[in-house]
Please model this.
Amino acid sequence: MALTTSAEPPRRERSALKRAFTKEALTAWLFILPSFVGFFFFYALPAFRGLMISFTDWNLLRDPNPVGLANYERMLADPLFWNALRVTGLYVLANIPIQTVLGLLLAVLMSRLTTSMFVRGTLILPYLMSNVIVALMWLWLLDPLLGFGNALLQMLGFSRQPFFGSPDQAIWTIAAVNIWRHMGFTALLFYAGMQGIPGSLYEAARIDGASENRMFWNITLPLLRPVTVFVLVTSLIGSFQIFDTVAVTTQGGPVNATRVLVWYIYENAFQFSNMGYATALSMTLFAILIVITLLQLRFLRSDQSDLA
Amino acid sequence: MVESTTARASARHRPGVPWGRILAWAALVLLLVITLLPFWVVIKTAFSSQRALFGAAGSLLPADPTLFNFRRALGLASLEEMIAAGGSGQSLNFLLYLRNSVIFTGLIVVFQIFFSAMAAYAFARLKFPGRNLIFLLYLAALMVPGIVLFIPNFVLIRQLGWLNTFQGMVAPYLLMTPFAVFFLRQFFLSLPRELEEAARLDGASPFGIFWRIVLPISQTPLATLAILTTINMWNEYFWPFLVGRQENVRVLTVGLGIFQSQTPQGVPDWTGLMAGTLLSIIPIFLLLLFLGRRIVDSLAFSGLK
Model:
C-alpha cells in the first residue's frame, strides 16, 4: 500500500495528505485513538518485543544479551520441548474429536427432543465456570483416597484409579475434565446452527423416503459446516494453549506427563527467569497455530456454505 | 423448525414401543447427570464435616452436616476453632477477592466495550486513509495466542511498576480487544444510515450521533458483548495470576488457586476448598439464573458471527 502511494505523482500525494486531515478523517482518528493505544502497547509492541527477546539471553535482572538463534537451536535439542509437544499433541488428539462428537450428539438430541431452556442452561453451566473452579472440582472428585469418582468405580465393581497421580493417566484425565467443561458449549453452537437449517429441506427428504440417519449425514452435517469449522478452529487453537487446568491439578507432573507446551513456557519465563528461551518457545507455538489454522481453513473450505 | 421436527417424528410414529425416543432421552438424561453430578458433590462436600469425610466418600448426602466450612472460607472462624476441627488454619478472604473480581471485571467490561465501540464505529462508518490497513492489523491480532503476549506484557507492566495493582491487571484489556472491535463493527455495518443522516442534517456532531443514536439502538449487541466479556474476564486466571498475586488485588480465581496450593499436600483441606469453590460458583450461577436466555443466546451467537 505504501509502495503505490510513493510511486504516484507528488500532486496525488498532497491530496492524500489532505485527505488525512479532513474533518471526517480527524474525527475518525479521535474515535480510533484509545483502541489504537491499547492495540499498539499490548498487542503490536509485545508481539514484536517477544520476537526480539527470543533472540536474547535474559533473566530480567541484567540487560538482555543477544544470542542470535541459540534459543531456537537449544529448543530443537531439548528433550523436554519435544516431550511438551508430544504431551500437548496427545491432549489435543483426545480433546478435539471427543468434544466435537459429544457436542454434536447432544445438539442432535436437543433438537429432536426438547427446546427447554433448563436443558441448555444446565449444559453450558460447566463452561461458565472458570478453569480453576472446574479443575478444583475434578481434583476432588478424582482424589485417589476420598474422591467420589473412585467410590463410584468401586461400587460398579471396577478397581480404583490414580487419575491425576499417574503418569499414564494424568493427561487423559485433564483432557476428560476439559471435554466435560466444553461439551455443552460445543453442543449449544451446533444446536444454534441447526436452527438455521430450513425445515423444508427435511420435509422434502422425508417425502423422498430418506431415513433420519440419512438426513443427518446428507443434510444436517453438510449444512453445519460453517459452525463445524468455527468449533474446530477455535477449540484447536484453545486446546493448544491448555494451561489453567495443569497449573491447578498436576503442575506438569507426574514425571513430565502433563508438562504441556504453555506450562513449560510458563516455567521457563516465571520460575527459571529464562525470558529468552521462554519467548522462543512461545514464538514456536505461535508458528504452529498459524500453520494449523491455515491448513484447517484450506481443507474445510470455511468460506463456502452449502446453503446458498 | 422445531414444530416440523415434532411433526416429522409423529408422522413416522409406528405402533409399539418408541425405542428410539426412549434411548435418545436416556442418553440426554445421562449427559445431564454427568454435567450436574460434580456440582452436587461440591455442594455435599462443602456441607460435610472435615472429620466425617473419611467414611463418606461415595455418599450422596453431606456427612455430619455443618456450616463450619463456609465460616472458615469466609475467614470468620478463629484459628483455634480451625485447628480443633483438624484443619490447616488456612482461610480464603472470600469477600475481598470477590470485591477484586468485581473491580477487575467491571472496569474492563465498561471501558473496553466503550472504546472498542468508538473504534468499531469509525471502521464501519467514517472514511479515512489507512482504514483497511489498521483494521487488518486488528484482525491479525485476533490470531496471536495469549502466552506470546503475556511474557512481553508482563515485562512492560513490571517496568512501569504496575505489578500487583489494578491498573496493571486491567491495562491489556481496558482499551480494546480485537474481538470486541470486530464484533461491533460487523453490527454497525448493518445499521440503517438514515437515522445518522437525519441527525447530521440537524447539526449533531459525530460523537453526538455515536452517543445519542448509535449506542442506544445497539443495545442487543452491546449486551451480548458485555455478557461474553464478563464471563471471560471473571474466569481469567493466567494474567491476574502473573501480575496480581498480592492479597489486596487478588481476584477469586487466583485466590482459589493459591488457597489450594497452600493446603497440605498429603491431606488437602477438601471441605474448606469445596466451600470456597461453592461460594465462587454462586455469582455465575445467579447470573445464569437471572439472565439465562440472554446468556445462552449470547454464547450461541458467539459461534455464528
Residues 270-302 of chain B form the longest helix (33 residues).
